[in-house]
Amino acid sequence: MASKLSGGEVDLPDFFADLVRCETRLYNALNDRLRERHGIVTSQFEFLRFLRDHPGARVADIAAEFAIGVGATSKSADRLEKQGWIVRQPNPSDRRSSLLALTDDGARLVDAAEKTFTGGLAALIGDTLDGSSAAAAARALSKLRSVLERDQIGTPTG
To answer: Which value, to the nearest 10 degrees, does the dihedral of the CA atoms of residues 114, 116, 27, 38 take?
Structure first.
């Protein structure tokens, strides 16, 4: 169902439903493409991409970025490590945590998968929204995300 606009006002429950359903459908479509072409799913791709772009990140850093629990993030890291895509290295400034890094195989995988991911997004979004619509949506969602993150809304406790 599309969000109802009446006199410039947005039906917020409909807006929420549209936002969540769009996210779910985009995520699932990208999951299918990544699984078919690279043997990974979207969450694994995002984890690997974050590590590529933030070398030496800790599990807690990744959990904070994706607003998920530290335990779930650690289990994801375990699975990626078992696949040989990441390694845990001692954290010289905190013995209780480790730093995560991509292996050469992980770096090759994320670089190849990024082409599939970006192409998929371009096809799914670019075919529907023109440049100005996509730019307006991106600005609005970025602003909303910034406020939610600044105020630590929706941050898991564990």
So the answer is: -90
pLDDT per residue as tens digits for the range 117-135: 999 999 999 878 888 888 8
The model's pLDDT over 102-113, given as tens digits with 9 standing for 90+, comes to 999 999 999 999
pTM above 0.70, yes or no: yes
Strand (E) or helix (H) holding 60:
helix 59-66
CA distance 106 to 108: 5
Whether the predicted pLDDT of 71 surpasses 80 = yes
Check residue 115 and report its DSSP letter.
H
Report how far residue 16's alpha carbon sits from residue 19's, in angstroms, rounded to the nearest whole number.
5
Determine contact, residues 71/60, Cβ cutoff 8 Å: no
* Residue 93 CB contacts under 8 Å (≥ 6 apart), including other chains: none
Distances (CA, A) of 33 to 84, 115, 116, 122, 133: 21, 11, 7, 13, 25
